[in-house]
Write a structure and sequence with these properties.
single chain, 21-stranded antiparallel β-sheet, disordered N terminus, Salicylate_synthase, ADC_synthase, metal-binding
Length: 437
């Protein structure tokens, strides 16, 4: 049996989410990142190399040898250069970038915990791709291919796991009070908008692969992910791209702003949609987000190429529906994918406007480091193409515990009780599907 490009029968993958969950739960392939994009699911595992960045140190590992050094400059450039020094030989890279990645570009490093991780990228030995043509396996041994074949076959038509109820309405973080503070700051002219979030700590350990499978069966994400990397486990159902740069160097971002509940029945959903598209607060919030995204893409694109499409469309994402737009431009010849990510990160719909003041408010009022929440899961091809999908609607777990997190966009017209309710609506995309370990 060949060790590369081994194709399995299409009928084995009628349920790709089940296949991905089973591969992750099998615990045979070391650390992994699973990433779903339209038409393709990739399970990348058993790293042969990695690039880790924290506030003070860069660590680069290749074939079990690690070098560590202090770093200076911008995180995007440091990561780009570190990947460029590795003998990738055509391999892809996968990983995550934390919200704190933005602190250097937005003059917010004073807020950082010295131990805060900024990014963790890995280069896998094994890639398993599931698409319309079946399953393609690269980098695996013959024995591993047999194991993968068996795992995927066994996953199909298996019953869905059962969730553990979670109380999402208890809030020890004082969310409504923090929203009221932000509204006062906005009305005093300090900034226009900020996204404040609240953390929901879980009283039990989570089966993250099973949570991914159950959640994916009940969500309609733009992208989804499942990972175990550097002591962090996470699974989520991303509503939007922070940034993508395709093989033709077209850079895209998808700002979402404006939210109502979804999935409560056709009549209720349509009434909520009508309210969403006519609510002045939501329209203003979305319009200034699109304006900001357009300006950011203009900073790295060829003049005349930035454009907005699908302006203020309604997109359904699990338990919520959003106002959404798409902004694109042609990346300038002297700019890289990492330059595009740096200017677009963090997503305007997860930080604030202006971004510098909004991010400062996030650090001050959210009260703790966000880490992967409102950061990005990333894929980088050897040609420089990149996707960075926004990490929202997710569950997180380390040895210290498991948690959920959700936020809402605060503007001058915001009411604290409504913004709290919005966080509950967003938590409804993940909380009902959390599976206890």
């Amino acid at each position: 049996m060949s060790t590369t490009d081994e194709r399995l029968r299409v009928e084995y993958v009628t349920d790709p989410a089940a296949a991905m969950s089973r591969l992750a739960a099998a615990d045979r392939f070391g650390e992994y990142v699973m990433y779903e994009r339209p038409g393709e699911w990739v399970f990348a595992a058993d790293p042969i190399g990695s690039v880790e960045l924290d506030v003070h140190e860069l660590r680069v590992t290749w074939e079990a040898e690690t070098t560590a050094a202090a770093w200076t400059g911008a995180p995007a450039g440091v990561l780009d250069e570190a990947l460029g020094r590795l003998p990738l030989a055509g391999r892809n890279a996968y990983g995550w970038i934390g919200f704190e990645f933005c602190a250097w570009a937005l003059d917010a490093t004073r807020h950082l915990d010295p131990r805060a991780p900024i990014a963790h990228l890995m280069i896998p030995r094994i890639e398993i791709k599931v698409g319309e043509s079946g399953v393609e396996i690269t980098g695996a041994t013959a024995e591993e291919i047999d194991d993968i074949h068996d795992l995927i076959a066994a996953s199909q038509d298996s019953p869905l796991p059962q969730p553990q109820p979670i109380d999402i309405r208890t809030d020890p973080t004082g969310y409504e009070g923090r929203v009221a503070t932000a509204v006062d700051e906005i009305r005093s002219g300090r900034y226009q908008k900020v996204i404040l979030s609240r953390k929901v700590e879980l009283p039990f350990a989570v089966d993250v692969p099973s949570t991914y499978r159950l959640g994916r069966a009940n969500n309609t994400p733009a992208r989804s992910f499942l990972l175990r990397l550097g002591g962090l486990e996470a699974a989520g159902f991303s509503p939007e791209l922070v940034a993508s740069v395709d093989e033709d160097r077209v850079v895209t971002t998808e700002p979402l702003a404006g939210t109502r509940a979804f999935g409560l029945g056709d009549d209720v959903d349509m009434a909520a949609r009508a309210d969403l598209v006519s609510d002045p607060k939501e329209i203003v919030e979305h319009a200034i987000s699109v304006q900001t995204s357009f300006a950011e893409i203009s900073a790295v694109a060829d003049p005349g190429t930035p454009a907005v499409s699908d302006f203020m469309a309604v997109r359904e994402r699990g338990s919520v529906q959003h106002l959404a737009s798409t902004v694109r431009g042609k990346l300038a010849a002297d700019r890289s994918s990492w330059d595009a990510l740096e200017v677009l990160f963090p997503s305007v719909t997860a930080s604030g406007i202006p971004k510098r003041e909004g991010v400062d408010s996030v650090f001050r009022l959210d009260g703790d480091q966000r880490g992967l929440y409102s950061g990005a899961v990333v894929t980088i091809s050897p040609t420089g193409a990149m996707e960075a999908t926004l990490v929202l609607r997710a569950v997180f777990q380390t040895t210290d515990g498991a948690w959920l997190r959700a936020g809402a966009g605060i503007v001058g017209q915001s009411r604290p009780e409504r913004e709290f309710e919005e966080t509950c609506e967003k938590l409804g995309s993940i909380a009902p599907y959390v599976v206890k370990a």
